[in-house]
């Protein structure tokens, strides 16, 4: 992977690759503080933790909240290697994250551009600014390679 | 509250009342195994745990998965005192819960009858059977009383 190690999405991709190495669907997420420091980094761990909620974004958000001692991540941003699902989109809103950056889109499970499009609903009371596409090709390739070996 | 102690929704209401006593938004959830035994019971703890994902349903699902040693709760049912939000609806689907029973509807935050209506989306790959209304009045009254003292 030839990306910039100062780019948070690069670290989300590293977390996704680590998830693949553990046999988990390769998705990674990073939470960055208002000053640009990475405060949490996580990969998907649903199988390892036997927890259907242990998506990368959920783990990174919970870790960041613990680090900051606050259930709101006001002014923080999240970088995810894949479009968040409906559950994670909800958590991103509740955590008051400022910007959501995601790499590949997910037509099958995504909840931002697809399905219930949570951030467009009147039941969504905090909308992050959404940025999509950076490192999308690398992320999609990692997912394809992972599922090729499984199916 | 004059309800049947053998009714799982009664126990969801007890968890909701306990949440209110802790200063948390009064929502409670109970997961019941295939044989009718309660395997997890939780109230909302977002403030206490400083965790925006610590909704009653999420905590009950995670506790039930830990109890069963499985990230899928196949054949289990969940009883919630309030319509699950978009995040919790996602978790209920991922956990493969069989039946979702909820008491009061939630037009402001709900994700089952309102907003993105997750279970009706093509991005939802497991739909529980949904049952609504039992103890709805008691749950709505508890929420109203809680917010009356806060606002």
Characterise the protein shown here:
The structure is a homodimer of 151-residue chains. Chain A is an alpha/beta fold. Chain A is 35% helix and 18% strand. A five-stranded mixed sheet of chain A has the order 2-1-3-4-5. Chain A is globular. In chain A, strand 3 (77-82), helix 4 and strand 4 (99-104) form a beta-alpha-beta unit. Chain A has helices at 8-21, 46-49, 56-68, 86-94, 136-148; strands at 28-32, 38-43, 77-82, 99-104, 129-132. Chain A binds chain B through residues 46-47, 49-54, 58, 61-62, 65-66, 69-72, 85-91, 94-96, 107-111, 114-118, 121-125, and chain B through 46-47, 49-54, 58, 61-62, 65-66, 69-72, 85-91, 94-96, 107-111, 114-118, 121-125.
Short description:
Two copies of one chain form a homodimer. Chain A has 151 residues and is of the alpha/beta class.
């Amino acid at each position: 992977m030839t990306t910039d190690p100062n780019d948070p999405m690069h670290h989300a991709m590293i977390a996704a690759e680590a998830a693949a190495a553990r046999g988990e669907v390769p998705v990674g997420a990073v939470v960055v503080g208002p000053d640009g420091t990475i405060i949490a980094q996580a990969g998907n761990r649903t199988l390892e933790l036997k927890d259907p909620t242990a998506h990368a974004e959920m783990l990174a958000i919970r870790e960041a909240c613990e680090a900051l001692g606050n259930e709101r991540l006001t002014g923080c941003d999240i970088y995810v290697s894949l479009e968040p699902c409906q559950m994670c989109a909800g958590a991103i809103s509740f955590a008051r994250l400022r910007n959501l950056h995601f790499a590949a889109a997910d037509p099958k499970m995504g909840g931002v551009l697809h399905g219930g499009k949570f951030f467009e609903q009147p039941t969504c009371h905090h909308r992050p600014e959404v940025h999509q596409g950076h490192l999308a090709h690398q992320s999609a390739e990692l997912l394809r390679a992972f599922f090729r070996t499984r199916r």
